[in-house]
Amino acid sequence: MPIRLKEVAKVQDSFFEAERVLEVDGEPAIWMMVRKQSGANSVRAGEAVINALPEIKRAAAADLDFKIIFNQADYINKALGNLSTTALFGVLITFLVLLFFLRNFRSALIVSTAIPTSVITTFAVMDQANMTLNMLSMAGLALSIGMLVDNAIVVLENIFRLREEGARAWDASINGATSVSIAVTASTLTTVAVFVPILFVPGIAGVMFVDMAVTICFALGVSLLVALTFIPLASSRFIGPRKSKAEQSRDVFSQLRTFYEHSLTWALDRRWVVAVSLVVVLGLTGALAGLMPTEFVTEGDDSMVFISAETPIGNNLQESAEILRGVVDKVEEVVLPEERRLVGLDVGVGKGFVAIFAKGVHAGTIRLPLVSPNERTRSKKEIEEALREALREIPGLKFSVAMPFNMMGGAGDVEVQIHGYNLETSRKVGLELREQLSRM
What we know:
This protein is α+β, with helices and mostly antiparallel strands. Helices cover 57% and strands 7% of the residues. The chain is built from 15 helices and 6 strands. Strands 2-1-4-5-3-6 form a 6-stranded antiparallel β-sheet, with helices on one face.
């Protein structure tokens, strides 16, 4: 028995006035936001959605073109890529420096393996501590890459020295690691002591940087363990034979050692000169620190430009959209096609969650995803400044070239709030202040 539509639904022939215009590169569009479930992996969720798009296009049997405005997984992958690059460069430079000073291929190779060994072990420790690889923990790991080989170098150099003096590889490894174990442990703990207080910092700074501090402490602790276990073991098995006395006498660093010995003797005989120099250096350090500019978070190039624009109040959606299409044309003139991925126009109020942040049908937002920084000649900051200069030419347009929101809760780098009991007086003061700030 057929079921008629009127039996299961109420059908009305009516008219609904549009309250929002969405366009991408001048074409009408539907914007779709996909969020991962709580606890899910952002990268895997993003990859799954992108891989499903071709099948969705085939199933729809329509002329659809998917364009990605923002993908959080891209930023995570870039952070992982930067860490990998940092680690590889650290391994390579460490190997070359040790090869230059020790002139022993095996010894340099042993220390170079300390970085990947320490990083992999740090990942295991972080996993046991229920930590995730996020922007801050990755930043901490990238920061600690350069410190992961410090202990290994000290231990290996001492083992190498004993081996050069004639000790057997086994004895040199045990005695060399034992004699400097207290020193490298103290050195590591002094570095850890710098980051431990961050765990007790109150407020948003403590919340933001706790993962970074914990990651650095984990990485340094693992590097100490690797230096006192893996390095002696590898040295006892793979370190090369000791040089003859004739070869040692032709050492190119013998003159450097002699110079250092004379310099050290001179400094010990003139301790007051060293003390005065230390005080002067500390004073200069404090003076330079006071002269350097400070900020909370550095401004990076995330390849995303936002333009918030307002037309005169009273314009309807069609009038506002027409004006902002002119803004899009100006944007396309300033930002070259090879510098951008697309231009997205959003005018109106919309429905649901997005309506909370909308200002009305007279306002809209232009989203401008850029190509990667290494694929363009201008930085994001230079492009934003060029857009500000160009958009000032459009009469009656109020605009802001900046992210409409930020993690700190403010609307921009500088935020001015006016508090008062009289609305008209507050409005008058606000308009006067706006005029004064616009002339600065």
